[in-house]
Amino acid sequence: MEVLDEIRDFLGCETPQAWIDEALKQQDILLIDHAHCEKKAASTAMTLMFRYVDRSDLLNKMSRLAREELIHFEQVLELMEARDVTYCHMSPSRYASGMREHVRTHEPGRLVDTLIVGAFIEARSCERFAKLAPYLDDILAKFYRSLLKSEGRHYQDYLGLAEDYAGEPITERVAHFKAIEEQLICSEDDTFRFHSGVPAA
């Protein structure tokens, strides 16, 4: 899958095996947090639509993205129900907040950085779906593989919009967030979540 190869090049590191091992032991938590991630992804897209009403390309892509993420949310809930896993409140991981605290506060830097962060979140999700699938039962593996195409497109949409709206090359900003993302993924993390780092011993 070409987009998956592109995503692996885009990310600074692969998901550590220790995270995969923990995910297999905590599949209920994984599913609950996955549902939260889909809902948050839809919310992020909607927020961008309300904040940047004059950018038609962004409006169209974020509208489609939000619809797809909500469909994924419903699909995860359906899977959870079939497995007697109850959807509940869950504290977020440090991942998204750890990325977003580096977003610039002035425009267009704020928009560009927000889009780059979105690209990294979608790319990491896609990479983890692909990494997990070989270890999972047939139903969950099939579902995660089915998400690869749309999540890969979401990554491309975010990155393409960032390039369009920057007015200058974004290589340095991408490299900046790449280093932050790699640190979050490869360092010890006390809380297991879909985007958490290496499980603390």
TrEMBL record:
<dbReference type="GO" id="GO:0006400">
    <property type="term" value="P:tRNA modification"/>
</dbReference>
<dbReference type="InterPro" id="IPR009078">
    <property type="entry name" value="Ferritin-like_SF"/>
</dbReference>
<dbReference type="Pfam" id="PF06175">
    <property type="entry name" value="MiaE"/>
</dbReference>
<dbReference type="InterPro" id="IPR010386">
    <property type="entry name" value="tRNA-Hydrxlase_MiaE"/>
</dbReference>
<dbReference type="GO" id="GO:0045301">
    <property type="term" value="F:tRNA 2-(methylsulfanyl)-N(6)-isopentenyladenosine(37) hydroxylase activity"/>
</dbReference>
<dbReference type="InterPro" id="IPR012347">
    <property type="entry name" value="Ferritin-like"/>
</dbReference>
<protein>
    <submittedName>
        <fullName>tRNA-(Ms[2]io[6]A)-hydroxylase</fullName>
    </submittedName>
</protein>
